[in-house]
Design a protein that fits this description.
Elements: E1 13-17, H1 37-53, E2 57-61, E3 77-80, E4 83-86, H2 97-105, E5 114-116, E6 128-131, E7 134-139, H3 145-157, E8 161-166, E9 180-184, E10 187-190, H4 192-195, E11 204-207, E12 219-221, E13 224-228, H5 232-240, E14 244-248, H6 251-254, E15 265-266
Parallel strand pairs: 1-2, 4-5, 7-8, 10-11, 13-14
Antiparallel strand pairs: 1-15, 3-4, 6-7, 9-10, 12-13
Bound molecules: citrulline.
């Protein structure tokens, strides 16, 4: 791979959670039909295999029918190489998801490095885009200013910088990372809607075309980038820039507004 050998952080582990049989009862704005649970399980298995192919040891948690959206584990925590911030998700139905993730993280991280967002702050992990030592914090329908400020203060105390990106007017973006992904090498995959924002001016851009917008939520893991099946132009652009891609079927998760990043916590 020319010029794309290493992401800024070597990742070794991932936490995922199986979708539950009542997964279709979760929140969604998509008009793509009801997800098929058996197919979602198959797609989840392929996702886990891809994480392993990227070099990660995967901890797969049992499904949690009390929280139909709990397969989207990314929203429950923000992980850095120096610690974890458990979130307080913006959707009330998802508030109970962080507790069990906190218990799992305690196996891997010192308890002194784990903090929690406090009410009335809210954060969904999907709004937090790590770009090396800088974090973009999306202010959205799920992540509020108070939560963003708590996170920014914690990041600053850990030696990271951060900036806010208000996406509340971007009606097609549930989360900031629905529209932008950091690849490493100062490079972003980004939608037209976000590409003009000052926050992203200092970066190289790989634009997703409007018909491949779902691919903006791709994930760099060590030497690979996970992308959704069907993002043909994005795959070609990534490969041209020296990245190895793995394309994954995501149809059943897309029906529930989920993308590739939201299915795992990576650290
Ligand atoms: C929700 O609306 O909360 C879930 N159905 C989808 C969450 C997707 N999470 C993410 O993109 N980080």
């Amino acid at each position: 791979m020319a010029g794309a050998k290493h992401s800024s952080r070597i990742l070794t582990r991932a936490i995922v959670r199986l979708p539950s049989p009542n997964f279709a009862a979760g929140l969604t704005t998509a008009d793509l039909g009801v997800p098929n649970y058996e197919l979602a399980l198959k797609q989840h298995a392929a996702y886990r295999a891809a994480l392993e192919e990227c070099g990660l040891t995967v901890t797969c948690l049992a499904d949690d029918p009390a929280h139909p959206d709990s397969t989207f584990v990314e929203d429950t925590a923000v992980l850095t190489e120096r610690g974890a911030m458990l979130t307080r998700p913006g959707a009330p139905s998802r508030r109970g998801e962080a507790q069990s993730i906190s218990e799992v993280l305690a196996h891997f991280l010192p308890s002194s490095s784990i903090q929690t967002i406090q009410a009335p702050g809210t954060i969904d992990g999907g709004d937090i885009c790590e770009a090396g030592d800088h974090f973009f914090i999306g202010i959205s329908e799920r992540t509020n200013q108070t939560g963003g400020e708590q996170l920014a203060a914690w990041l600053a105390a850990s030696g990271f910088t951060s900036s806010f990106v208000d996406i509340r007017r971007e009606k097609t973006l549930l989360h900031l990372k629905s529209g932008v992904a950091y690849l490493g090498e100062n490079r972003l995959v980004i939608t037209d809607a976000l590409a003009g924002r000052d926050a992203f001016a200092g970066y190289k851009h790989i634009r997703v075309t409007p018909n491949e917008e779902y691919g903006a939520n791709c994930v760099r893991i060590n030497d690979c980038v996970l992308i959704p099946v069907g993002c043909v132009k994005l795959a070609a652009d990534l490969q041209k820039s020296g990245y190895q891609t793995i394309a994954l079927e995501m149809s059943e998760f897309q029906k529930m507004d989920g993308g590739l990043s939201c299915l795992s916590l990576r650290f």
